[in-house]
Amino acid sequence: ASPLIVAPSILAADFAHLADEVHAVEGAADWLHVDVMDNHFVPNLTIGLPVVESLRKATTIPFDCHLMIEAPDRWAVGYAEAGSYNVTFHAEAAADPVGLARDLRAAGSKAGLAIDRDTPVEPYLELLPHFDTLLIMTIKAGFGGQKFIPQLLDKVRAARRHVASGQLELRIEVDGGIADDTIAAAAEAGADAFVAGTAVYGAADPAEAVRRLRARATS
Ligand code: DX5
Ligand code: ZN
User: Fold this and answer.
1) Mean pLDDT, residues 89-102
2) The CATH number of the domain where 152 resides is what?
3) What whole-number distance in Å separates Cα of residue 216 and Cα of residue 124?
């Protein structure tokens, strides 16, 4: 496993040419971040299972599905069955997060727990042994292109301390406003997986943008 994960978010890609956009980061990126929004959990609507199923056949890059949806207990396992590497659902939306994590793992994917901007991380630390990834939003979930909120890195620090003290096998992922000028602070706070939409797909050369982000996270 690579020490650091860089996951371009296709939310910032051209949805009319999704396969081409994914091919543009293959080889440079570790995971492909797929933002699923249902216009209920967040006030925005993106893509769902049919697109994930089709895109899965067009690339070998591991999918990191980020479900910003209500009732993930009902829908998340479908994304695991569609061949996703990791499926992350929101703590604020899940009725039974531990049960759902177990179901995701049984369906063959890793399980991720996401914490939105206004949700404290402390109540969820005790659930982390059931998860493979903890996604800490560094913006309010719902839209790409927002400004990184550095104060939210306090949650990353708290989670990293907890992971280290409990010797947990868990990735800490940050999502929102990750770019050349913010990724080093997130890495220093203890994140080891980085989602970037605008910083990758807003760049003239998306693969080069991924390599540059990785270099800045490492330095
Ligand atoms: C927003 C999504 C993010 C989004 C990040 O709710 O979860 O993954 O794509 O976009 P940038 O990198 O532009 O902030
Ligand atoms: Zn996301």
Assistant:
1) 98
2) 3.20.20.70
3) 30
Radius of gyration of the chain, Cα coordinates, nearest whole angstrom: 16
Q: Within 13 Å, how many C-alpha atoms sit on residue 16's CB side? A: 0
User: What is the secondary structure of 137-177 as a DSSP string?
Assistant: ESS-TT-SSPPP-GGGHHHHHHHHHHHHHHT---EEEEESS
Average pLDDT in the 131-157 region?
98
Atom of ligand 1 nearest to the CA of 199: 12
Which ligand lies nearest to the CA atom of residue 178 in the structure? 1
Burial 192-211 (b: 16+ CB within 10 A, else e): bbbbbbbbbbebeebbebbe
Q: Does residue 183 have its Cβ closer than 6 Å to ligand 1?
A: no
27 and 4 Cβ atoms separated by less than 8 Å: no
Q: Whole-model pTM?
A: 0.98
The yes/no answer to whether this complex scores an ipTM above 0.95 is yes
Please indicate if the annotation marks 190 as binding a ligand.
no
Total domains in the fold of the chain: 1
Q: What are the structure tokens assigned to 99, written together?
A: 């049960």
Listed residues: CB within 5 A of ion ligand 2: 35, 66, 175
Q: Which domain holds residue 181?
A: 5-218
Which contiguous run of DSSP H or E holds residue 189? helix 183-189
Q: Please report where in the chains the tokens 């980020």 appear, as a residue.
A: 66
